[in-house]
Amino acid sequence: MTIQEQKDLISNSTFKNHIFFDSNDSYLEVCEFNQSQFITFENFYNLFSFIRKSVSPDIRIRVKSVIEFDNKEVDEELNLSHCDFEKKVIFSNCTFNMNVDFRNCNFYVETSFKKSEFISKCRFHFSNFETPINFENTTFNNLVDFYHSDFKETQSFFLTDFLNISIFSNVTFHRQVQFLYNKVGEKTFISFENATFKKSLDISRSNFWCRLQVWGVITPVIPEEQWLYETDNINQTAISTNLVALKRIRESYRIIKQELRGEGNNIEALKYHEYEMEVYSKELKSRTETRKTGDLIILWFNKWSNNFGTSWSRALAFTLITTFIFYSIFLLSISDELIFAFSLESIGNTIKYFIQFLNVTSWDFKPFGISDFIWGYVILYIGRLFIGFGYYQTIQAFRKYGKN
Description:
The model has no long low-confidence stretch (mean pLDDT 88). The relative contact order is 0.05. The chain is α/β, with parallel strands linked by helices. The chain folds into three domains: 1-65; 86-306; 312-402. Helix 3 (243-262) runs antiparallel to helix 4 (266-286), helix 4 (266-286) runs antiparallel to helix 5 (292-306) and helix 6 runs antiparallel to helix 8. Helices cover 35% and strands 18% of the residues. It is built from eight helices and 29 strands. The longest helix has 25 residues, at 374-398. It has helices at 3-11, 41-55, 243-262, 266-286, 292-306, 312-333, 344-358, 374-398; strands at residues 19-21, 28-30, 61-63, 67-70, 73-74, 78-79, 83-85, 89-92, 95-96, 100-101, 106-107, 111-112, 117-118, 122-123, 128-129, 133-134, 139-140, 144-145, 150-151, 155-158, 161-162, 165-167, 172-173, 177-180, 183-184, 189-191, 196-197, 201-202, 211-213.
């Protein structure tokens, strides 16, 4: 159907005062449909059905009027795809018994489905939310799909029930996001595959006792913005400490780690184990307890010796550097009995005894023929404790992909 045929169709319809082509004939403008004669949901539904079924199934629509309905039961499929909503979209206490489509939409102002229920499938593919969308006490009984959608502002899924397949694959959350006190069912499967969380993710209180797909998730380790994770309130408030936020972020990483391990994905599970430990280190620094010092020392050694079990090269470097440091101190302790020379023989002997220093199983250590050294034994003993730790960390890092 040509543009002119579409215009003729509109001009001969009962909706001619509410639908207009823009000046470039590139999209439709829908406006003033909420005036007195268009206040009913039936008229609203008929208008969009006319556009999608008679004019064009995929022409872009600029909606310049408020959409606001309360306590409505919708028994027909509702197609509001390819729309730019320039004014608020509110469906409160509504029940959608058939499929609802918001594919490829832009929501520029307030959007809410508070206390609404979707009995059938609901799709938001490739949609863009410029403001937070309200899903408080919203129930999705069937598929809800946000594939490739963008959430530009802080987003909370508060008391949102996901009772079936819920897709957040390839979604980008540009600011903080949290899932709070959600209800799931026996059929619930939630996919965050390849989702990007630019300010981190809080699922610590989500109640996601269901199957989760978290492969390919991208998130910073320590988010710069954390106020949302301190509260259940989406309105920004000043916080005195980030301790609560760090605990919740750490718990979120633990949940992701466990899900990945359950799937046998040890490579990504190790990454989130590393994230978990990084956040825990930050958390310890925010605490006031005296016992935290010991924990921080342990975490420091685990980070710099093998990066929490993920880097064999760092573990090997730690072992060699530790050996070099303690071997140098050992040589200084017996320097009075040494004659320093820059000959090939001297250099060879120095390297030979360095290798012997590395051998933690041999204690018959007589460098350069010297067998009687007092402080040297203390240095040798302490040094080999660190060297043994380095060996252990190297083995642990080499076994990282075999862990489960």
